[in-house]
């Protein structure tokens, strides 16, 4: 009962004849430090599964657990607190605040958690340096390339030492080379931190950065492979 766990998750949007069964009974475990890629055709339930596992969306039935605790047993306030302190999120794009420089974007979650500005900024700059962004601390998102902005988003997701990073198509807006750099940064940083990674992608080359891939179809897990992940070392 240490990592993420899904037991018989179902999610139905709407009801009656127009209901969509986005998740039709998903069982899944993600061990601490494991990296999981969720693949499958459009509409197969990947994003819904990610959001239910992350406590963003309540399941219709079944249980999503983190470290042995059911997310449904928490109050809304406690679930939000858990999401902020133990989960990190990376989306396709557009998640940085455009008016703030990179270091303040990264420091923001720490400051919201009560860390003093000087300490938060110092830790933010350390993470930016780890991710190859030394010298970019003062730039606003609009003054960064797409790949640089995604690395800032990764720094922001990791700065609070989360146990798991949820990433929904984090390279979806990038060309192949930049996507490779971003996946290298993301998986290296998760490994260094001991954080699990749960990644939604439709790109098999992106999935190969993870140690396990599952395939979804019509709300069910229909296949699974374990693999030696790609690493940046050549
Ligand atoms: P994927 O990420 O694999 O593309 P999703 O989880 O986004 O799949 O969607 C699964 C199914 O649920 C799709 O049929 C989609 O149209 C439907 N769906 C997703 N979100 C909603 C929503 N908020 N309301 C109604 N239907 C939804
Ligand atoms: P999809 O990945 O299926 O395209 P969306 O991008 O519409 O789904 O996002 C679905 C949910 O994910 C949103 O309701 C929101 O909670 C969250 N989300 C997506 N992008 C961002 C973002 N840039 N910043 C914060 N939350 C986001």
TrEMBL record:
Residues 4-234 form the ABC transporter domain. GO terms for cellular component: membrane protein complex; plasma membrane. One of its GO terms (molecular function) is ATP hydrolysis activity. Gene3D superfamilies: P-loop containing nucleotide triphosphate hydrolases. SMART domains: AAA (SM00382). InterPro entries: AAA+_ATPase, ABC_transporter-like_ATP-bd, ABC_transporter-like_CS, ABC_transpr_LolD-like, MacB-like_ATP-bd, P-loop_NTPase. Keywords: ATP-binding, Nucleotide-binding, Transport. This is Putative ABC transport system ATP-binding protein.
């Amino acid at each position: 009962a240490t990592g993420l766990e899904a037991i018989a998750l179902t999610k139905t949007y709407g009801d009656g004849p127009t209901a969509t069964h986005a998740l039709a009974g998903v069982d899944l475990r993600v061990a601490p430090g494991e990296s999981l890629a969720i693949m499958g055709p459009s509409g197969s339930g990947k994003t819904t599964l990610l959001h239910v596992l992350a406590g963003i969306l309540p399941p219709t039935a079944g249980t999503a657990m983190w470290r042995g605790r059911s997310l449904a047993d928490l109050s809304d306030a406690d679930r939000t607190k858990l999401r902020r302190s133990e989960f990190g999120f990376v989306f396709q794009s557009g998640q940085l605040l455009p008016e703030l420089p990179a270091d303040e974007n990264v420091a923001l979650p720490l400051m919201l958690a009560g860390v003093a500005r000087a300490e938060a900024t110092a830790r933010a700059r350390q993470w930016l340096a780890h991710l190859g962004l030394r010298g970019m601390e003062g730039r606003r998102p609009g003054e960064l390339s797409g790949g640089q902005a995604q690395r800032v988003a990764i720094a922001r997701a990791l700065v609070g030492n989360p146990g798991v990073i949820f990433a929904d198509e984090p390279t979806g807006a990038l060309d192949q080379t930049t996507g490779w750099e971003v996946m290298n940064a993301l998986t290296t940083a998760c490994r260094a931190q001991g954080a699990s990674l749960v990644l939604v992608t439709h790109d098999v080359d992106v999935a190969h950065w993870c140690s396990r891939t599952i395939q979804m179809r019509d709300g069910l897990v229909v296949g699974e492979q374990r693999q030696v992940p790609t690493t940046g070392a050549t």
